[in-house]
Amino acid sequence: MTVVKPSLRTRVVRHVVVPLVVLWALGTAVALGVASYFAGRAFDRSLLDDAYAVAANVRVASTGPALNLSTTEMTALLFDQTESVYFAVLLPDGTLLAGHPGLRPQLLAPDNAFAFADIGFQNRELRSVSLRRSEPTEFTVVVAQTTVSRTQLLHRMLMYAVVPQIVFLVLLVWWLRRVIQLDLLPLAHLQQALGQRSVHDLSPMPVSVTLAASTRDIQKLGTSVDALLARLDASVTAQREFAGNVAHELRTPLASIRAQADYALARTDPAVWREQLQGIARGQERASHLVEQLLGLALADEARGSLKLVPIAVNEVARSVLLRYLPKADAAGVDLGGDGLDEPAVVEADAALLEGILVNLLDNALRYGAAAQPQVTVAVHQLASSVSLSVTDNGPGMTQVQAEQLRQRWALGPAGQQLGEGAGLGLAIVSRYAELLGAQLTLAAIPGGHGLQATVTFS
Question: Core-most of 35, 63, 290, 430, by most CB within 10 Å?
């Protein structure tokens, strides 16, 4: 069962509105509580004033204590336009001196002259105050009234305070929903633009989509999507180029291998078989070398966005590769040596790319640097602010223009064209690797017109 998740706008509105409503409700409750408390204090104070007014009219006559007010005067003293007021004046023994029978005072602490209480009298809820006096004699005054005014005041406060706030809250929620929707609209446009794209369309997003972002975060998202599309486009392009290169460049050696095999199968002479098998072996070696170079170029293109450089001892890498190539150099009759490989030289690089640079340079030197007494030298030198890695041969060499042309893919030098070997990728791979490592490749002819020196400088 698929769970339908809420939209981002709904979640944002919910996370904003719910705390807002809760805080509003708490704030309103606190405000109403405080207002009700102080309003009650004001009503209680008025009730206490009435009790003091009644107590001020108690006199001691020859017949004993008495309330020195007539019924009309008491009605005028305790008159309230909306409330019913009750009172009683009681002696310490509970004798009713004046007022309403059955109205009893609250128990007062010795240090309290008065106290308020909610009581029931004649089936009505009243608010009362009990006032104890000792002059001109000891007595207690009880004044109580209904709470209609208090209730009405609370209702009016609730109406005048809460109802407008509810209206404002509704307007605020509507405004928040609209603003959030407008702010998220560029995100919806980005989603729509991505959803309508073909799987083959990896071009950047339209400017109208990325620039219409209302916030920096959405604009950064659009920029990140463009960057991702650019990386995917580069990766897909590299894969297509690799596939095309493999299909194109392997066709010739594979066809040659097949032709040699067919020729050998049509003959019965073992000498012919041996000759054709040797040709097949050479063709297989050339095809393998070509595949390795194409994979090297693909590696360079893939490493463009994820390459991590770490400190590497160039002299140790050079010594390791040189020892690996010694048997091949001996078989070819080449004097392979090293210079400065025992001196520490550390650069920020990638081990696979650094080794790939040296392998391709050595392979080119051994393949094309043929001479009467062929010599190839691998050198590492620590300079003032840089480290140089060079491979020098004493072959036929080339002009500076020819050397610069060899940086391009599929470009063969005079020696390669004469031998009919190679695919023109070695120096192109070295140049690309050097660029990824932040180094510089230079090709220089040896003075005298014999030999070539390929140098990679790490600054």
Answer: 430
